[in-house]
From TrEMBL:
Catalyzes the cleavage of L-kynurenine (L-Kyn) and L-3-hydroxykynurenine (L-3OHKyn) into anthranilic acid (AA) and 3-hydroxyanthranilic acid (3-OHAA), respectively. One of its GO terms (molecular function) is kynureninase activity. Pyridoxal 5'-phosphate binds at residues 107, 135-138, 220, 223, 245, 275, 303. Coiled coil: none annotated. It is an enzyme of class 3 (hydrolase). It comes from Dyella thiooxydans. Belongs to the kynureninase family. It comes from the Bacteria. This is Kynureninase.
Length: 426
């Protein structure tokens, strides 16, 4: 039965009171606005700070002060094998085997490291296929990789134009592009969720299509991790990269994540080597020859930045306790409510460009304001003044993302009421 929604605070508050995940909100610092909690809808850009991060960071600083180099071996969580404290929770979060994931570097760096191994262009097959309007770093990265290998992006960068409403991309368009260009494509690189439209893609179907044409497949999961339940191993994709500062709440510039499918765990692939990618059991023999750790950890270059790993460790523990399936169930309700409010109360003012099919989106709704860009900017600025924080993406999109760990139905209603108040004020 479809959920029945109501645009009243009594209804919204009753939903929040009955929410089995409601307690998680108290584990986060909610940015205040004029003496009360603001309405934060920007977890797609920078997730909120878990309260447990500060004491955990403080403990590491104490170890550093008291133990110094001995901190690698002593304390409650010695630094030497810090990956061990994250691996299982990270694997569970993305639906991977522990050997397939590692937290390291940042998204852009990891994308390049993965392309070193998984973009192997030849004269017959030089191309990379991406979506038109890809996030800048992704486009810059693939363009520079194409040039680095001596090819010309004018010929070897294929950008797939959206054929659906509001620039969304249908499976049929992906299928057609692979049928036409697949024989020339070395790498297909697509987003898990497109950052501007909020459209979610079917990894498994795309991977099967691309593999059938002999292409390698990677995904940028920046907007998908911590937002959708994922099954990366089963999808069969070759690799994925993502960041942890968006839905995974690990702080500005947080350490990123990488997935390398198990079938490549011991494959002889070209890659850039560093001592932390070497096997643990002989890492400290300081041998001149690189002997890789099987799996994703073999791509590590450096010993991990412990102070930056702490918020990620804490955040992954929160996701472990909340469970991605329960979060998704709430997210469907919460984003469904926001969508219903916009379509039933605000259709004269706003238009949602994110797919209406819940299986083709996560928490985020991308919204255009009727009447053009200037009106959109004006509404966006008004909302910020009211303590309602979304974000603006050029040329004309307001992104509003209720995050199920800390957003409430009452927040969605407050958004709708503020938009109406803005319109009424003329
Ligand atoms: C957020 C985001 C990035 C950011 O990359 P960093 O290297 O973490 O700065 C890259 N690509 C996509 C698709 C994103 O959404």
């Amino acid at each position: 039965m479809p959920p029945t929604y109501e645009a009243t605070s009594a209804w919204a508050q009753a939903q929040d009171a009955a929410d089995p995940l409601a307690g998680f909100r108290d584990e986060f610092l909610i940015p205040p606005h004029e003496g009360r909690d603001g309405r934060y809808f920007c977890g797609n850009s920078l997730g909120l700070q878990p309260r447990a991060v500060r004491p955990a960071l403080s403990a590491e600083l104490d170890y550093w002060g008291e133990l110094a180099v001995e901190g690698h071996f002593k304390g409650r969580a010695p630094w030497l094998n810090y990956e061990d404290y994250l691996r299982d929770n990270l694997a569970a979060l993305v639906g991977a085997k522990p050997i397939e994931v590692v937290a390291m570097n940042t998204l852009g760096v990891n994308l390049h490291l993965m392309m070193v191994s998984f973009y192997r262009p030849t004269a017959e097959r030089p191309a990379i296929l991406i979506e038109a309007g890809a996030f800048p770093t992704d486009r810059y990265a693939v363009e520079s990789q194409i040039r680095y290998h001596g090819f010309d992006p004018a010929d070897a960068l294929i950008e797939l134009e959206g054929d659906g409403p509001h620039g969304t991309l249908s499976m049929a368009a992906i299928e057609r592009a692979l049928a036409e260009h697949g024989h020339r494509v070395a790498l297909v690189l697509l987003p898990g969720i497109q950052y501007r439209t909020g459209q979610a893609f079917d990894f498994k179907a795309i991977t099967a299509l691309a593999h059938a044409r002999g292409c390698t497949v990677g995904f940028d999961l920046a907007h998908a991790v911590g937002n959708l339940p994922l099954a990366l191993h089963d999808s069969g994709m070759d690799f994925a990269v993502w960041c942890h500062y968006k839905y995974v709440n690990s702080g500005p510039g947080a350490v990123g994540g990488v997935f390398v499918h198990e079938r490549h765990a011991t494959a002889e692939l070209p890659r850039f080597h560093g001592w932390w990618g070497n096997r643990r059991d002989n890492r400290f023999q300081m041998a001149p020859t690189f002997d890789p750790t099987p799996g994703a950890e073999g791509w590590q270059l450096s010993n991990p930045p412990i102070l930056a790993m702490v918020p990620l460790r804490i955040s992954l523990e929160i996701f472990h306790r909340a469970g991605m399936d329960r979060l998704r169930a709430k997210s469907l309700q919460l984003t469904g409510y926001l969508e219903w409010l916009v379509n039933s109360q605000l259709a004269d003012l706003l238009e949602i460009i994110t797919p209406a099919d819940p299986t083709q989106r996560g928490a985020q709704l991308s919204i255009r304001v009727r009447g053009g860009r200037e009106r959109g900017r004006a509404l966006f600025d008004y909302l910020v003044d009211q303590g309602i924080i979304g974000d603006w993406r050029e040329p004309d999109v307001i992104r509003i993302s209720p995050a199920p760990l800390y957003n409430r139905f009452a927040d969605c209603l407050a958004f709708a009421e503020a938009v109406r108040a803005w319109s009424d004020a003329g």
